[in-house]
Amino acid sequence: MAMDESLIMEEQRLRKQIETIEACQMAVFEVIRQYEDSTFKLMQEEIVLAIHAIGMDLQTELLHVRFTQARQH
Q1: Would you say the pTM of this structure is higher than 0.70?
Q2: Cβ atoms of 58 and 17 closer than 8 Å
Q3: Cβ contacts of residue 15 below 8 Å, gap of 6+?
Q4: Cα(5)–Cα(57) distance, integer angstroms
Q5: pLDDT digit string (tens) for 2-22?
Q6: Residues 6 or more apart from 25 whose CB is under 8 A from it?
């Protein structure tokens, strides 16, 4: 497999993971809306922030893949 092809596959994998993380975050927000009177507001925020951190890590990985792709051309 050529380097370009492996980078393309890695980019696609990361995009799918980012899409999944965003869907998870939206689902958590929907649950929070349903339980807006919850006494666990801090826990809810921690969960959303943890999901967000995973998304940011994936975005950083994607950025590195794109840098690598740009440098090859």
Answers
A1: yes
A2: yes
A3: 62
A4: 22
A5: 778 999 999 999 999 999 999
A6: 48, 51, 52, 55
What per-residue confidence (pLDDT) applies to 1?
57
Question: What is the secondary structure of 11-53 as a DSSP string?
Answer: HHHHHHHHHHHHHHHHHHHHHHHHTTT-S-HHHHHHHHHHHHH
pLDDT digits over 18-42, tens only?
999 999 999 999 999 998 777 888 8
61 band by pLDDT with thresholds 50, 70 and 90 = very high
In this prediction, residue 64 carries a pLDDT of: 98
CA distances from 17 to 2, 12, 33, 42, 71 (A): 23, 9, 24, 26, 24
User: What is residue 2's DSSP assignment?
Assistant: -
Location of structure tokens 């958590």: 28
